[in-house]
Each structure stands twice: as C-alpha cells, then as structure tokens.
Amino acid sequence: MFGKKSPPITEAWRGITFTRRAIVVGGAQAALFGALAVRMGYISIIDNERYVLESESNRVNLTLIPPRRGWIVDRQGKALANNRVSLRVDIIPDRLHNKDLVLGQLRTMLRLDGDAMQRIERDLKAASGFQPVAIAEDVTEQDYASVLVHLPELPGVAPARGFARYYPTGAAVGHLVGYVGAPSAEEYQEAKDPIYITPGFKIGKQAIEKYFEPVLRGKPGAKRVEVTARGKVVRDLSTQPDVQGKTVHLTIDADLQHYAARRIGPESGSVVVIDCLTGDLLAMASMPSFDPNSFSSGIGVAEYKWLSQNDHVPLRNKTLSGLYPPGSTVKPMVAMSFLEAGLSPEATTFCGGGLRVGNRVFHCWNRRGHGQVNMSKGIYQSCDVYFYHFAQQMGMDVIAAMAKRLGMGEKFALPVPSQSFGTVPSPEWKMKKYDRPWAISDTVNATIGQGYMLANPTQLAVMASRLATGNVVMPHLTMAANRPAMQSLGFSADHIGIVREAMNQVVNGAGTAGRARLPIEDVKMAGKTGTAQVVSLSVGGGKGGLWKHRDHGLFIAFAPFDAPRYAAAVVIEHGGGSGAAYPIARDVMTFLFDRDKAMEALTGFETGWGGTIEERMARDFAIWKAGAARPAPEDAA
Amino acid sequence: MIPVPPAIQRVPWKLIALLSAIAGFGLLILYSAAGGSWSPWAWQQGVRFLVFLGAMLVIGRFPLRLFEDFAYFGYLAVLLLLFAVELLGFVGKGSQRWLDLGFMNFQPSELMKVAIVLALARFYAQLPPASTRTWTALWPAALMIGLPAALVMLQPDLGTALSICIGGVVVMFVAGLPLWWFGSAAAAGAAALPILFSMLHDYQQKRVLIFLDPESDPLGAGYHISQSKIAIGSGGIGGKGFLNGSQSHLDYLPEGHTDFIFATMAEEWGLIGGLGLLFAFFLLLRWGTRVALRARTRFGQLVAAGLTMTIFFYIAINLSMVMGLAPVVGIPLPLFSYGGSSMLTIMTCIGIILAVENDSKTGTRRFH
C-alpha cells in the first residue's frame, strides 16, 4: 500500500478522507435504522395477527369445568347413580414455588398420610405446566374452609367445588352400573382431549358407566381468566356453563335390585329377575360386590387388594360372567324338548336309584329310587333316571336344539362390556372342540345339566321366562319406547301347560322345593331346583367340608305359575345344594307381590348375618386390614 | 422584536427539546410499566434525567481543548478503575461489573466507552499525517482498545466490550487508516468466530444459539425474545393503548422497564410509536454526524464521529435484540431504559459532542 503512486498524505487529504468516511458511517447508521423500521413494520403488520393470538393465549387461561354426568335411573326414575357436590384441592405445578412448604402445610391441614404424599410427589414429578395434580378429593367443609383461609400463603394450590359420582345403593349396583374413575394416561393419549386432564373429570370404567360413556358425559364448561406470567389470576373474563350428560334409563327396579342384593346375604351368588311380558331385566344382583363409591374417588391400594384377594370374587359380575353347570334346572327344558319331539308325558320308566349305561352305572340323586316315574314326577321329584332313560331314546340333538331355542349359549344384546355365554354341548360341538366322538355318557350327563353344559344366571332366567310363556323373551337393560312384538316359540299350549304344572308341583306340590312356597294367598310360584356338582363326591361331600368344594345351589322360577309375569334365576356358589337358592328366589319373588312381607323376612335374616351390606363390608375390611397390616408395619406409616 | 440575549441564544434549545421528548416518552412508558405509577421508576428516572441534562449542558460549555488535554489521563484512570473492579468489585447478577462507592454502584466500563473514543481521537489528532498508513498508526490504537475490552470481557460483559471496540474502530476508520486493514480484520474476525465463540461463557453461548434457533427453548433463554416479539407484534400499527399492554402488565415480558422497554412501548403505542422513537433517535444521530462533519479541529471530528457511533451502537443493538435480530445482550436503550449508568454515559457523550459543536462555532475551521 505504500506504492510510490500513492498521493502524499497531507492534512487536507486527511480531512477529505474523514468527510467521506464519516458520511459512509452515517449512511450505514441510517441504513440500519431503515432496516430496523422495516423489521418493526414486518412484525407489527404482517405478523400482527399471529402475535395478537399469542399475546391473548398468554393473557387468557382457559380452565375447563368437568361436565356433570348424566344420571342412571331405574324404571321408575329412581337414581342408581347421581351426582353430589364434592370439594377438592389441586396443585397447579407451574404456580407452585415453595413446594416443600406448601406440601407440608397441606399435609397437616388435610391430614394426608404417607401413601398420599408419595402419590402426590410422584404425580408432581410427572406433571407438566398447568396440568393440575390432585391433592385430595372429597374433603370436608371444614378442611376446605381452612385451605381457603390459608390460600394466600399457598401459591399453586387450587381448591375447587365440583361434582362426584354417587351411588345411593352402593355395592348393590356395583356390577350392574360399574363405576367411574380418573382417565388413565393411555386413555388421554387416545382421546387427546384436554378435558381428560382436568381435575375432577371422571370417565366410566365398567359396565353401564362405560358402555353409555358418550351419552352420560355431557359437555364441559369453560372459564376464562386473565393471568399473570406467574399464574396469578387477575380477573375472571367469562364463564360458559357445562351441559349435563343425558340420563340413562334402565329397566332395573332399584328397590328390587337392592332387595335381591341384600337377600343374598353372606353368600356368593347372583339373582336375575326378568319381566316375562317385556323382557325387561328387573334385577341383576351379584354379591359380594364392591362399593362403586369407593372407586369413584380413587380406590385405595389396600381396599383393592382386599377385594381382589377375596375368594368370593367380589370383582366378578356373576350374573353375566359367572358360568355354572345348570344342574337339574335344565330338566323342564329337556322335558319340553321330549314333548316337542313326540314323547308322551305319560310315558314312564322305573327308577331304582340308578341306571346302567354301557358298562357304567349312573346314579339318581335319590339312591333309594323314585319308583315308576312319568314326566311330571321326573320334573318335580327331579328324578335323574327318568331323564337318563328318555334322553338316550330322544337323542342329544333335540335337547341341544331346545337349549339353544330357550337362550342357553346365547349372547344377548345387552349394553355390557362382556358376558360369558357358556356351552350347549352337541356331537358336532364336541368333535370340533375336542376332536372326539360324542359318547352316550355325554348325553346322560348333559340331560341333568352336568358335564360340558355351562350357563350364566341371566341365561337361566331367560330360559325360565321362555319356558313359562312360550315366547322368545329377549332380555333388555335399557328402557325403549317401541320394541317389536314378542315372537312365539311355536310350542303347543298343552306342552307349556304340562311343564308349568310340573314346575308348580316342585314348589306347591310333592316337589323338591316345598319351602319355596310364596307366603301370599293367591300367587303361586313355579320353579325348578338344581344342584351343580363342583368336585367329585370322593373329594368333598357336596354339602359339608371346604366351602369351595361344596355344590352350587341353583333355582329357576316364574310366577304366577298359571299366568307368568316374572321369571327369576338364583345361583348360589358353593351353597351346598339348591336349598341355598330357592329361599332367596322365594323372598325376591315375594318382594314383587308384597314388599312388606318380603322386607320383614329380610330384616330377620340381616340381624342374624350381622347388619346391612355396608356394615358387613366395613367390618370385613377392617378385620382384613388389621390382619394384612401386621406383617408389614413399616407400610402403616 | 425583542433581541434574544446571546446567553440564551447559546443554549441548544432544539437539542434539549429532542432529548426531553425522548426521555419524556420514556417516562410515560416507565409510568405504564409500573402499572400506572410514578414510582418506582418514572419519578427517579425523571429526576435523573434533569440532573444529567444539566451536567450535559455544563460539559458542553467546557473548552474542547480540555478534553484533548485530559484524554490520556482519563483513559488511564478508567483503565485503573477496571483493574480495580477485577480486584475489588462485587458480584451481582452473576457478573462482576460494579464498584461499590457507598452512595451508588458505579460501573467503570460505561466510562470506558467515552474514554476510549477521547483517547484514540487524541492519538490520531497528534499522529503526523504521513504516519496514517504506517504501523505506528495501528498498534498503539489496537492496544488501547484491546486492553479495556479484554478486562470488560472478564467481568463478563459482552455488550459493553463490543461497544468499546466499535467506538474505537470507528475512530480508527474515520481517522483514515487503510481500508484493507479493516477488510482483512473483518475477514480474520469472521474466521476466528468459532474460537471467539468457544471463549464465551456458557450462558452467552446459549444466548447466541438460542438466537439462531429461538424455538429450541421457548420457556428458557428464548423466552425473552419470544415474549418481546409477541409484545411488539401484538401492538400492531396503533398499539393497544396507553396502560393497556398485557404483555408488560402481566409480567410476560421480562425486563420490561430496562432492556426490553422498547417492546413495552411498542405494545401500547404500536408501529407509530416505534417509528416516532426511531425518528427521534435518527435526528439525534444526524445532529452528531453533522457536528462531526463541521468540527473545527481534527480531535473534534474524531470525537464527535466516535461518540455518535457509541450512541448508535446502543440503539442499534438494543432494537435488534428486542426485534429478534440479535442475540440477547444486556444493552439498554439510550435515554429510554430505566437506569443511571447508561444515561450517564449517553449524556456525557452528548455533552462532549455539544462541546465540539460549541468549539466549531468559536473559531475558524482548519479543514475544508
């Protein structure tokens, strides 16, 4: 740069250079200002809309209000599930600043135990942003008030008044109605709906609550509030109320359901009552059960363990998922198949206590024998030999076909998440399932409802109603305005009369269930007893011994016998025989005709059993907990 | 007509009006940022402005010769103070910048922005014209810039260090140093960027990275920029109206009364307010540039040009930052942001430029 051609550097040259360069610097400055002006214009004109939205979403915090669930009511409109006001306390993690202090305060104020604190710590770690973490649901008025008073010192704590699901009859409707619970992470991932992470929002988890979720849900409300960056609410902007879910109308008779559940008492069993004229299911009681109220506010680990470890399986809906060998309750059905296949009802055989089939002797339940037995006596005395004898003549095909016509093995269109529909064995079925030919002994077993034959209590009730009316009674659980007229099964009226009369004799004549007679003058109940063998006689006596080795007791019934209106099935697991089942059927049926008499009987029983369902459950749980807490005392803290 | 007395004529009324307009507008914003209250910011800032305005006018009456004579001395004194900060300064907000004088926290690096310009101007004013393109013109200047810049980087204060450098480099540029020096220095600097980057502190590196990709950390370090852009953008053309800015009032905008005060203003006054303020700053810088062009002495020329650049640098970096064109560096908006140190620097700069202007009115110019 110091070439000889460079002009000599003088003060004047320096001055000109300065002027030029100062103008360049000034120009550059002006250009940058221009660029800044353009940039600002771009942000505030072109991008304005976007940034207005962002500033609004900064400013306004939308809080969803969980919708009130629709009620579940019985046929008269009586609530099986409704809502009650519930007070809750949540934490908004983003607004929580002094976590340890706030949690410590809440712990004393709401008397939270170590279990709860652990859960809260875990939830807080997993939660992000404004997704609230539940601290306590269903707090008392006093506790709620004390949190409200201390709210200024508890940043991040959000008390709220909401609604909780309430089941007035508790355990009596546990299996039927199901329960609600907070949505799981998977359910949120699937739905991608912000209402799923709103505190206090519950979805149906079982049975009716789950099946009718879309109907019961309703529409969430929303509350818009202006918040500062630190989450402090400055003012309320607007509130849109929630829309309550629709009511689900069940065919159930709430009082009957409650009565049936109570009447089962300490036994493990189920009662299904059906209206023969419409197919409406009036009661589907399965006991022991769980209290859906405990589930709706999040069931405790201990309580769940207690329920799942109980050998009476309170978590299984026995009316639909319990499968039992129907035992002798199939005999009227088998008799009907004989009649329709042309057997005379007067045809007799001799029962000497057993029958040789092939090289094996099949015994009658009465080892002394029934003597000469016709069809009627075969039913009311439940003579096994009569059925062994004629079933071999008539063949399994007619019996299997009749069983299916009467609803055995059928899956009903009920609004339930699952039902087990059992087995109606036939030669084709056995070939397909076991790849073995049908044996004559299979027929003999099936005809008395043992062997491969399996049914659930709802199917037994349907079978009873179809036998009684000769119509294709379809069970319904929800009320509907116009249903198609009932189809006839096409039985001869004489045949229906013969079976009805025989079943009448079971209760009101020389039959096996004389004690099942209704204590009402002009209503007669017809029925059929059944005893299902659980283990072979060599293991248990059937009646005594270990509970789980005892026979199941079954009973199907309808009343009044000459103009059937109601049909019922009662199954008592390990009841030691049908004697455990028919007194229950008697009382439940009595309830339909004379409530006072039925209640009187029940009150007497409940005194003996040690109180109502709730009282007994509470006591059992306390005993179980005391026993369970002992081996691990460190958990009790 | 009543003859205006010369004493009143000598007062730079237009400049005072311009500065008062900018600062007064700033007071309104501070009033709004405090939620419609004169305390804690607006009142104190107003008093401070009046005090510094008086100081500026006094500085403006000083003979320019005085600044030239004390340029080196001042530079050395401030350099010593910077050393003192390294040794004695207390740590605040994660960096060591302040010297506790008892009555106020004093930030010597601010004074260096002025001192470096004065010292370099003195150096080039004394340099014989023939040496302008020699090595002699370069190394003392580079040393004079490098030493304080390095000290300030240690504090660490990237923004102030850059400001010192840019003020010094502009003086070198207008002093007539060969263009290719600047070109190759810029090229070398660009090549050395990765090395320089690795020398930055973690949080500074993070800011630069966030600047390059603001969406990567919307709730962390990118939060400032996003919220600032939301504030400016949502203001639109006319703004949301005085006292109606939700971003600043609801605390979404951090530092809404200091570094990000422009966003606070733009939210409520919109593009119109922003362009108005930009225009006011433009007038101020145009005045500075004109003073430089008309200066009577070489020292005056260089000083006015350098100091104007120093003021410009504040404005440009701050505005680029709040509009998302530059990484977040802690540089306030002159006369507008709440704070004493930067206002002291700016008013001192303007006072010295005023002294150059007054000087050029007194005698004959040496260069044409």
From TrEMBL, chain A:
GO terms for biological process: cell wall organization; peptidoglycan biosynthetic process; proteolysis; regulation of cell shape. Signal peptide: none annotated. Residues 269-589 form the Penicillin-binding protein transpeptidase domain. SUPFAM superfamilies: beta-lactamase/transpeptidase-like (SSF56601), Penicillin binding protein dimerisation domain (SSF56519). It is a single-pass membrane protein. Its main location: membrane. It is found in: Cell membrane; Membrane. InterPro entries: Beta-lactam/transpept (IPR050515), Beta-lactam/transpept-like (IPR012338), PBP_dimer (IPR005311), PBP_dimer_sf (IPR036138), PCN-bd_Tpept (IPR001460), Penicillin-binding_protein_2 (IPR017790). It comes from the Bacteria. Keywords: Carboxypeptidase, Cell inner membrane, Cell membrane, Cell shape, Cell wall biogenesis/degradation, Hydrolase, Membrane, Peptidoglycan synthesis, Protease, Transmembrane, Transmembrane helix. One of its GO terms (cellular component) is plasma membrane. GO terms for molecular function: penicillin binding; peptidoglycan L,D-transpeptidase activity; serine-type D-Ala-D-Ala carboxypeptidase activity. Pfam families: PBP_dimer (PF03717), Transpeptidase (PF00905). Residues 65-236 form the Penicillin-binding protein dimerisation domain. This is Penicillin-binding protein 2. The gene is mrdA.
Automatic annotation (TrEMBL), chain B:
Peptidoglycan polymerase that is essential for cell wall elongation. One of its GO terms (biological process) is cell wall organization. NCBIfam families: rodA_shape. GO terms for cellular component: cell division site; plasma membrane. The keyword Chloroplast does not apply. PANTHER family: CELL CYCLE PROTEIN, PEPTIDOGLYCAN GLYCOSYLTRANSFERASE MRDB. Its main location: membrane. Its EC number is 2.4.99.28. It comes from Sphingopyxis lindanitolerans. Pfam families: FTSW_RODA_SPOVE (PF01098). One of its GO terms (molecular function) is lipid-linked peptidoglycan transporter activity. This is Peptidoglycan glycosyltransferase MrdB. Belongs to the SEDS family. MrdB/RodA subfamily. The chain crosses the membrane at residues 15-34, 46-64, 70-91, 137-154, 161-182, 269-287, 299-323, 335-356. InterPro entries: Cell_cycle_FtsW-rel_CS, FtsW/RodA, RodA/MrdB. It catalyses: [GlcNAc-(1->4)-Mur2Ac(oyl-L-Ala-gamma-D-Glu-L-Lys-D-Ala-D-Ala)](n)-di-trans,octa-cis-undecaprenyl diphosphate + beta-D-GlcNAc-(1->4)-Mur2Ac(oyl-L-Ala-gamma-D-Glu-L-Lys-D-Ala-D-Ala)-di-trans,octa-cis-undecaprenyl diphosphate = [GlcNAc-(1->4)-Mur2Ac(oyl-L-Ala-gamma-D-Glu-L-Lys-D-Ala-D-Ala)](n+1)-di-trans,octa-cis-undecaprenyl diphosphate + di-trans,octa-cis-undecaprenyl diphosphate + H(+). It is found in: Cell inner membrane; Membrane. It is a multi-pass membrane protein. Keywords: Cell inner membrane, Cell membrane, Cell shape, Cell wall biogenesis/degradation, Glycosyltransferase, Membrane, Peptidoglycan synthesis, Transferase, Transmembrane, Transmembrane helix. The gene is mrdB. Pathway: Cell wall biogenesis; peptidoglycan biosynthesis.
